Amino acid sequence: MNRVRVVLVNTSHPGNIGGAARAMKNMGISELVLVDPERFPDPDARARASGADDVLEGARIVATLEEAISDCVLVLGTSARDRRIPWPVVDPREAAGLVLDQLDDAPEATVALVFGREDSGLTTDELQRCQYHVHIPSNPEFSSLNLAAAVQVLCYELRMLDLQRSGQPTKMKKTETTSIQNEIPATAEEMERFYVHLEQVLVEIGFHDPQKPRQLMPRLRRLYGRIRPNQVEMNILRGILTETQKAIGVQASGERRR
Amino acid sequence: MNRVRVVLVNTSHPGNIGGAARAMKNMGISELVLVDPERFPDPDARARASGADDVLEGARIVATLEEAISDCVLVLGTSARDRRIPWPVVDPREAAGLVLDQLDDAPEATVALVFGREDSGLTTDELQRCQYHVHIPSNPEFSSLNLAAAVQVLCYELRMLDLQRSGQPTKMKKTETTSIQNEIPATAEEMERFYVHLEQVLVEIGFHDPQKPRQLMPRLRRLYGRIRPNQVEMNILRGILTETQKAIGVQASGERRR
């Protein structure tokens, strides 16, 4: 991902440069090139970067798109509008595939993702310097994304694919606090003992009449089966039943009422 | 998608509410509920919404998360940090699958996507009201996305999946200007005539010696074969060859030099 370059062309609002830097860093991308930005550096950029100061400080400023991409082997430009130039168009997911394929094929190569002006995007001439146009599938009636949001979507797709291809998880694992027991599902035997206990309590509280079962137990089996309780949860469920029995005056399961 | 509700909890910066509204509308989602926002309505919200005023104006303000989600059949909460609560965690793509499956299964149901505070996310209590936690796979060293950026990623995944499932394209088609010819690839015969013409010109300009072919023509066949030129492009390529011949003094292909 350190061979992915984000190029922002002629950005008007420095806040968007900061937002783009933050989105990049969130997704593990750090190389930013600014083509003729209107205001940069600027406090608004720093505020929106919200800690991605290293990306902003490392940003290179150049005068033309050509300078920004001259050493890149693959250049993708974002394009919101149909400009009636027939050109290869990809969605962000396909774009991520093209980028990572290219980086795999050419281990020294750099790839550029080019983003245009907030109000008018990339010019026809700029778009023609890109091998592919990336279109984010937005609502046709309100299609123009915020610049930093567009950077976020593309960098997110790159990170998702990079994690997938390198066999890393795309979501964090939450560590358990209590014990490993949290992760061990209840066995079938434990489930059966639970159902016996549950039915007994339902009878004791007067909710269930085994002579008129009305499909109650099968329904409850389906419900708890779907939950697939773990050991800790099973202990809780059994505890509730036992406490219910105590509350209604049954000493322990199987014993008769006092 | 009109049964997807975005819930923002206790947002500090109204600009982020505006950015979220814009991201939603870009992705075709319109229902916004604000739980106890610090400042709303606010000119900053409107500025960042950048035209998604209808989403802001339709936003409902409630006092508690409970009010925001009480009628929802599925609630997903975004969670940046490992809070050491074992809980089902999904990535944004899996989250989109869960949401659309739920909407398919229950045609009247509403689903909520819940986003926490800019600085501290959702509380443990709030997270426990969500059936699933959504984790955006960010850089572990800089993991906290801007609120509107997080809304953008989730709404983007929903739209991508919704378009895919309904058989709609995830990228726009660029209409051709010239003619339908643009889309018709050159036939094998046209390609062969081109290769004959090309070889002839390469001989004429002194670049190619058929007695010492050095694999030149196979290499060029591989190159142009990969390009798969269409009719218009083929006319251009042939035109270049003809003009080259004129420039070096060959009247037309097959004729000898003057």
TrEMBL record, chains A, B:
Listed Pfam families: SpoU_methylase
Catalysis: reaction(s): uridine(32) in tRNA + S-adenosyl-L-methionine = 2'-O-methyluridine(32) in tRNA + S-adenosyl-L-homocysteine + H(+); cytidine(32) in tRNA + S-adenosyl-L-methionine = 2'-O-methylcytidine(32) in tRNA + S-adenosyl-L-homocysteine + H(+)
Gene3D superfamilies (alphabetical): 1.10.8.590, 3.40.1280.10
GO molecular function, one term: tRNA (cytidine(32)-2'-O)-methyltransferase activity
UniProt domain tRNA/rRNA methyltransferase SpoU type: residue ranges: 4-156
GO cellular component: cytosol
UniProt entry keywords in alphabetical sequence: Cytoplasm, Methyltransferase, S-adenosyl-L-methionine, Transferase, tRNA processing
EC number of the protein: 2.1.1.200
SUPFAM superfamilies: alpha/beta knot
Compartment(s) where it occurs, according to its Swiss-Prot or TrEMBL record: Cytoplasm
Predominant subcellular localization, coarse grouping: cytoplasm
GO biological process: one example: tRNA nucleoside ribose methylation
UniProt function note: Catalyzes the formation of 2'O-methylated cytidine (Cm32) or 2'O-methylated uridine (Um32) at position 32 in tRNA.
Record-stated family: Belongs to the class IV-like SAM-binding methyltransferase superfamily. RNA methyltransferase TrmH family.
Description of how the protein assembles with itself and partners: Homodimer.
Protein name from the UniProt record: tRNA (cytidine/uridine-2'-O-)-methyltransferase TrmJ
Species of origin: Halopseudomonas xinjiangensis
Source organism phylogeny: Bacteria, Pseudomonadati, Pseudomonadota, Gammaproteobacteria, Pseudomonadales
